[in-house]
Description:
This protein is of the alpha/beta class. The chain folds into two domains: 27-272, Rossmann fold (3-Layer(aba) Sandwich); 275-307, no CATH class. Helices cover 53% and strands 14% of the residues. It is built from eleven helices and eleven strands. The strands form three sheets. It has a seven-stranded parallel β-sheet with strand order 5-2-1-6-8-9-11, sandwiched between helices. Strands 3-4 form a two-stranded antiparallel ribbon. The protein has a two-stranded parallel ribbon with strand order 7-10. The longest helix is centred in the middle third of the chain and has 29 residues, at 138-166. The structure holds NADPH dihydro-nicotinamide-adenine-dinucleotide phosphate (NDP) and ligand LVWHZ4SM. The ligand CCCCCCCCCCCCCCCC(=O)OCC(=O)COP(=O)(O)O binds next to helix 7, helix 8 and helix 10.
Amino acid sequence: xxxxxxxxxxxxxxxxxxxxxxxxxxxxxxxxxxxxxxxxxxxxxxxxxxxxxxxxxxxxxxxxxxxxxxxxxxxxxxxxxxxxxxxxxxxxxxxxxxxxxxxxxxxxxxxxxxxxxxxxxxxxxxxxxxxxxxxxxxxxxxxxxxxxxxxxxxxxxxxxxxxxxxxxxxxxxxxxxxxxxxxxxxxxxxxxxxxxxxxxxxxxxxxxxxxxxxxxxxxxxxxxxxxxxxxxxxxxxxxxxxxxxxxxxxxxxxxxxxxxxxxxxxxxxxxxxxxxxxxxxxxxxxxxxxxxxxxxxxxxxxxxxxx
Length: 307
Ligand SMILES: NC(=O)C1=CN([C@@H]2O[C@H](COP(=O)(O)OP(=O)(O)OC[C@H]3O[C@@H](n4cnc5c(N)ncnc54)[C@H](OP(=O)(O)O)[C@@H]3O)[C@@H](O)[C@H]2O)C=CC1
Ligand SMILES: CCCCCCCCCCCCCCCC(=O)OCC(=O)COP(=O)(O)O
């Protein structure tokens, strides 16, 4: 009896590893010719997603606030072309400000006019924040919420009816590790990402029977301009490249993971190293320790600021 245990364990581990390898090898559905809308496509992760989805043959609608910077991306990606392997398409652009929620419905109409429908909406645009709660204006808390939460959900709700009608479509949102754990001096940002996680989890459940998948992607730090563009407690721009951002993941790696998640119709994906991943589990399994660690992190950061 005892002699049979070891081979059984080895066989089980082998089957599990094989299963993992097979999971990794899955390619999922193609995005060739699919209409993919990307918000925040003018820089950072959105721009890399534009490159990756364009190369995969998607018909892109790129969104942002700055027409000139969006055009730069269009120029870089080039016009329609076809080689032996794949046809690529010149992207369209739609310019609008997600924080002006009343303008989003009109933007959605413009987006729909590009190709008549949307196959994949990637809610990527967002802004971060740096500040302590005591010194943060309520207007800043609201503004971050408008850009990161109300804007994306307005766009989603404006595009959903046409997806429901076609019984086709896919909603993706770029949240953050901070949609799963809250860290000190990020109240506005973490709150907006927690709200995002909750809304899109509800949407996934409600869209399940209609066959419209919802994917929430939660990256850790990514090497982009996000810390430079972050807003502070008084509404001014932070303007600093944080060490954590500079040493973050390469946005190309994250963009490829976004494409993979779209192809596999994944539900919830965390793209982060061991520390943030462990922190997410700790928050649920051992909250008291997690809160202690966050309090000590807050003290350390405060001391650093005081020095
Ligand atoms: N960088 C990081 O460490 C991480 C980033 N993320 C998430 O990734 C996403 C992309 O951020 P990232 O690329 O890093 O940052 P960037 O600052 O490089 O890009 C942000 C993009 O969002 C757009 N944007 C900002 N505000 C608005 C608005 N009001 N209306 C329309 N578009 C807007 C910007 O467009 P423009 O200014 O040209 O109008 C820009 O294209 C965000 O949702 C962010 O929360 C998640 C985890 C980590
Ligand atoms: C291996 C042992 C680990 C023990 C775990 C201890 C807990 C450590 C806390 C780790 C906190 C991680 C925070 C990660 C935050 C993050 O990745 O945020 C992503 C962003 O959205 C970045 O935005 P920002 O504006 O904050 O730069």
